[in-house]
Amino acid sequence: MQITQVRNATLLIDYAGTRFLIDPMLAAKGTLPAFAGTANSHLHNPLVELPLPLAEILDVDAVIVTHDHLDHWDPVAQQQIPKHLPLFVQHQKDADTIRTCGFKDVRLLSEQVEFAGIRLQQTEGQHGNDQVMAVLAERLGEVCGVVFSHPQEKTLYLAGDTVWNEMVAQSLRQHEPDVIILNCGDAQVPGLGSIIMGKEDVRAVYQAAPQATLIASHMEAVNHAVLSRKELRDYLAEHGMADRVRVPEDGDTLSL
C-alpha cells in the first residue's frame, strides 16, 4: 500500500489497486473560520496550503468521510468531488447530509461493506475524553474509524478522530492491524482537554500494537491542533519509539 499525507486528516490511500480519498478538506489556506472555543481560535483554517494539485487529489476510485466536521468535509470538497464517486460514511445521518450536496452513490460503512475486493469495516471511536464529551457531546458528535483488509495487503486501521480508549484497544485486539493511521495533532478545547490523540495516546497505541507501523496524521493544519511534528518526533526519540512511528510531512508518500 501507499499512503500520501495530503493535509490535516486528508489522505490518499492506494490499497490493493484501489485509490481512496480520506476526509477531504480542500479549501485554500485561511479561507475557513477557526473552530470557536478551541485553542488558537484567532487563526483561520486551514493553516497551510494543499501540497498537491486538486486534480491529483480528486483522481480516486472512492471517498471515505469518517465524520462530517468542517476539517474532514469542507465546502470545496462538497463542490469539487465528482458526484458519481462512491462515498462511504458512518451512518444514515451523514449519508442524508451528503446526499443533499448531490452525491449519487453514498454507502454506509456500518454495513460491513466490500469495495473492489477490499473489506471495509467500521470501528468505533470517541471524539474526546469523557470530560470533554460530558460537555460537548452534541457538538462533537459521533465519529468512526475504518479497517481495510485484502488477501494481498497488510491490514490497515485508520483510527479517525478519537482519543485512546477501550474502543481503540478493542479494535487493535480484534483486527491486529499491521499499519495504523492516528489523528494525533492533539486538538484542544481549553479547560476541557484533547479531542483527538496526543503524544501519550500515540505511546499507548505503540505499546498495545507491537506488530504495527504507526503513521501520524491530522497535524499542523488547523487552529486547535497544538502538537507539532517536531515535538512528536522529539518525544518518539526520547521514548525509543521512532522505529515504528512515521511522521510524514504534507505531500509525503509512504510505501508499506
TrEMBL record:
Key words, A-Z: Hydrolase
Domain Metallo-beta-lactamase: 18-219
Coiled-coil region list: none
Pfam families recorded: Lactamase_B_2 (PF12706)
GO MF term list: hydrolase activity
Record carries keyword Hydrolase: yes
UniProt cross-references to PANTHER family, sorted A to Z: L-ASCORBATE-6-PHOSPHATE LACTONASE ULAG-RELATED, UPF0173 METAL-DEPENDENT HYDROLASE MJ1163-RELATED
Protein name according to UniProt: Zn-dependent hydrolase-like protein
Naturally occurring in which organism (per UniProt): Aeromonas molluscorum 848
Phylogenetic classification of the source organism: Bacteria, Pseudomonadati, Pseudomonadota, Gammaproteobacteria, Aeromonadales
